[in-house]
Amino acid sequence: KRLLLIDTDPGVDDAMAIQFALGLPQFDVQALTTVFGNVAVELATTNALRLLHLAGRADIPVAQGAAHPLAGAFNGGAAFVHGDDGQGNTDYPPAPTQAVAQPAAELLAEVISRHPGQVTLVALGPLTNLAHALRLRPGLVHEVAEVVVMGGNAFCAGNATPAAEANVLSDPDAADVVLGADWPLTLFGLDVTQQVNMPGAVLDELARLTGPLSAYVGQMVPFYRRFCERMRQIDGIFVHDATPLAYLIAPELFRFVHHPVRVDTSPGIGRGKTWPAPSDPAQLQRPALRPWLGRPNVKIAVGVQGSAVVSRL
Ligand code: BDR
Ligand code: CA
């Protein structure tokens, strides 16, 4: 079994990803850590605890993480995408359980170090907790088995702004740290997640599933679906956050390139854009490419068999 740590800001598609991870025999979810993003971090924690409670997995610890980016303030979230509660305005009562006292970055570092080479870190929100964990314990880069990130837009436009994807835009400084760390990281940006389109007919089928967690997720999806259908002009939804998990069970459905990546951390209109540079070391000597020099190659997903992924979810 693959040990997973899921860092998340639930979020409707985060909830779907967590449901998927909990349901698969290939995965053993060790903990959820929460971060500001779609909602304030306190609400992200409430939502994570509720998802585990409804799944009958209250044994899995939840640790609360960053309330704001490395620099600056929380931007207020994405209620127009995920609802005021982050869960499609379902307004379910909170779970009777509580988060552990340990901050997210400490728990991440501790769990990874406890099982060297065995833990896959799955990042589904802004990368702030990962940046804090790297500061706390730089040796994590050698201890983690793999890091899979939903975030960025290497070769396509953004979704939060024309330049940037929402998770990266929420903390570009943290993203630049995390993508610059020399660890085995794979980036699942909009390049692929916008090809993982779960059509309305599949959602209608999923809505008929019973069981406390399925019923809850089924009730939260319509809000997010309305957003996707109106604002993105698609039938159904993009399943952004489940995409890196699908990769973990079916890597053959994806195609990758390898490039050093920088994140635009300027306050201008390009803020949050992920920029891949040529990976050829000779080219990186050019003065114009200095900002990328010495950065590790990031494995970037650029192709996906979207409908095959959807059929595995
Ligand atoms: C990402 O932003 C959030 O709104 C989603 O949960 C996903 O993680 C997509 O850009
Ligand atoms: Ca998310």
Give a description of the structure:
The chain is built from 14 helices and 12 strands. It has helices at 12-23, 41-54, 79-82, 104-114, 128-136, 140-143, 166-170, 172-180, 190-193, 200-206, 212-231, 243-249, 281-284, 306-312; strands spanning 2-8, 27-34, 62-64, 119-123, 146-150, 185-188, 197-198, 237-238, 254-259, 261-263, 274-276, 298-304. It has an 8-stranded mixed β-sheet with strand order 3-2-1-4-5-6-12-9, sandwiched between helices. A two-stranded antiparallel ribbon has the order 7-8. Strand 2 (27-34), helix 2 and strand 3 (62-64) form a beta-alpha-beta unit. The model has no long low-confidence stretch (mean pLDDT 97). The structure holds beta-D-ribofuranose (BDR) and calcium ion (CA). The site of calcium ion has 8 residues, from loops.
